[in-house]
Amino acid sequence: MTDYIDFLSRVKTYSFEKWTLRSSKITPYHLASWGFSCIAEDTFECTMCQQTISASHLPFQSEIEEQKTIDMDLLIKNFFGSIMAVHKEECLYNQNNYDNQIYFSLTDEFLIQNMEELYMLAYNSYESFDNMNQTEESSSDENKSDKYPCIDTSFLKIIPQQYHFLLSQDQKFVKIKSLDVRKTLAAFAWRLEEDSQSGKGTLNCDFCGRCVPLQSYATNNGRYMIITQNNEANEAFNPYEEHKYFCKWSSAQIFTAEQEESSQTNLEKEKEDSDTSKSINGWNICINYLLDQFTYQSKKKKTFEAVNEIHKMQDEIKKIQKDFKQFEQTISEKYTKIVNDCESLNIKSASTSQFKQKLQQNRQSIDDILKDLNLNSLLESNKKIKTN
Ligand SMILES: [Zn+2]
Ligand SMILES: [Zn+2]
After folding, report:
1. How many whole angstroms from 373 Cα to the centroid of ligand 1?
2. pLDDT over threshold 80, residue 374
3. Residue range 310-324: mean pLDDT, rounded
4. Rounded distance from Cα 74 to ligand 1 centre (Å)
5. At what angle do helices 108-137 and 282-372 cross, to 10 degrees?
6. Interval between CA 336 and ligand 1 midpoint (Å)
7. Which residue of 9, 78, 163, 367 has the lowest C-beta tally within 10 Å?
8. How many CA atoms lie within 13 A of 95 on its CB side?
9. Residue 92: nearest ligand to its CA?
10. What is the domain partition of the chain in residue ranges?
11. Does 2.60.40 match the CATH number of domain 2-85?
């Protein structure tokens, strides 16, 4: 990360006053990659070995157009050759020191890998600026209106409409007023800082060193209020166009959402494959990052809802199980009662038959007694007595 920070601090030295555009094929990124800072107009110094080199011999674009004989490609090739050869032998930017060489180049891979950190760094800068202003507000209201610049919304045309919601307040982009200034500025790499000299806020891009004072633009206190392109556009801040021409974050390139690639036709893919400049820019990577975040969050929300649903179902199952247990208990209690009743009934029926048997036995013994008593003779004698 230090290589990256050192690299960006070198890029920042290529200010409007000192850096003159000769050709779009030479940018501060090239020179900063090889260790050079811009110390004076067209003069560059290696931050490690202090060797200097000048680009003042290179012709301007207008001269090349006038004199058709100038071979700019050859001049650039020679310039790059001398830039690499100018380092001292022991310098870590010297290409001969392969083992120890320091080299940093702002690649797409680097931006993709670090997007979350880069975006959050820019986004959180507004939070700290808010806090800073709040403490100052207690003594004076002066900075209160300086919080956010009015945004020129013409930049929205470079982002397909279906992705505008990613920059909106609540991710439901219904009207232009719900555009979130913080999200928008952060997506275009604008970090808010307090200028140490003026005490006023400045918007900074770390990737091209552009620094604009907030007071250059119409500002508003609301986080979601903006001015559209048709209304005082010259006073509004265009987050896309304010970068320097070479900025890795904003350099013109059509939007290529990863999700859209699947819907491309083969013809379009072939056309893209043949295109050598496949490099995409920072804001594009950032929109894709926000899209991934949104997809991840909505998937997470759906998973959360599904888990909740499962928990609800589990509760219901538990309730049913409890009810069933109670039912089982009641059934078993009732069964036990019936069995007991049946048993007692059996006992009763058994004792009835015993009683019956006893009765029969008693009857028999009565009969026997009666027989022994010789009732017939008694009856006979009784008859005789009656007739007499
Ligand atoms: Zn050097
Ligand atoms: Zn920039």
Report:
1. 153
2. no
3. 93
4. 24
5. 90
6. 99
7. 367
8. 9
9. 1
10. 2-85, 108-262
11. no
Is 234:149 a contact under the CB 8 Å cutoff?
no
> 258 C-alpha vs ligand 1 centroid, how far in Å?
40
Residue 135 has pLDDT above 70, yes or no: no
